[in-house]
Write a structure and sequence with these properties.
The protein is built from five helices and eight strands. The protein is α+β, with helices and mostly antiparallel strands. A six-stranded antiparallel sheet has the order 3-8-4-5-6-7. Strands 1-2 form a two-stranded antiparallel ribbon. The relative contact order is 0.15. 43% of the residues lie in helices and 23% in strands.
Length: 164
């Protein structure tokens, strides 16, 4: 009987602790859903979400790759380095050619890269898919979140890829 009581107390303690963890997760995803303007599901990588949100609002700077100013590929490469320790190529075109496995647009997951042809026939822009059809990228207004259904991004979207 004594061992049953100990086991029951242990099980209740673990359950109570996990309930607190679930609440913390809900709070985390609610906070970052609001901060990023995206309906997060709760399955996204927390470190990735937090890191992308920290970059939001960073000014645009051609050739930049820091929080004082960044361009699109600088932003993407720094996020991947910070979160996963992965070194990506420095241009959107080279990322597309070397760093990703092509995936269909309808199989996008948080962290996948989205490539655009914004000038000419070559890949010239990259962003990171978040969720809810939204992605984060360094645009002329700085690091912002946009919807893939925005007419400009719908027109210039090229392909998607999952980092190898």
């Amino acid at each position: 009987m004594k061992s049953f009581s100990v086991l029951l107390i242990f099980a209740l303690t673990v359950f109570a602790m996990s309930c607190g963890s679930v609440q913390k997760d809900k709070n985390f995803y609610a906070y970052y859903s609001k901060k990023l303007g995206v309906n997060l599901t709760g399955k996204e990588d927390k470190k990735l979400i937090k890191t992308m949100a920290e970059w939001k609002g960073t000014p645009y700077k051609y050739g930049g790759a820091g929080k004082s100013g960044t361009d699109c590929s600088g932003f993407v490469s720094q996020v991947y380095k910070e979160v996963y320790g992965i070194k990506l190529h420095r241009s959107s075109r080279d990322m597309y050619k070397n760093d990703v496995k092509r995936i269909s647009k309808n199989s996008l997951k948080c962290g996948d890269l989205i490539f655009f042809k914004t000038s000419g026939k070559k890949v010239s822009h990259v962003g990171i898919y978040i969720a809810d059809n939204k992605f984060i990228h360094a645009a002329s207004k700085g690091v912002v979140v946009n919807d893939l259904d925005n007419s400009y991004y719908k027109k210039t979207y090229y392909k998607s890829g999952r980092v190898k």
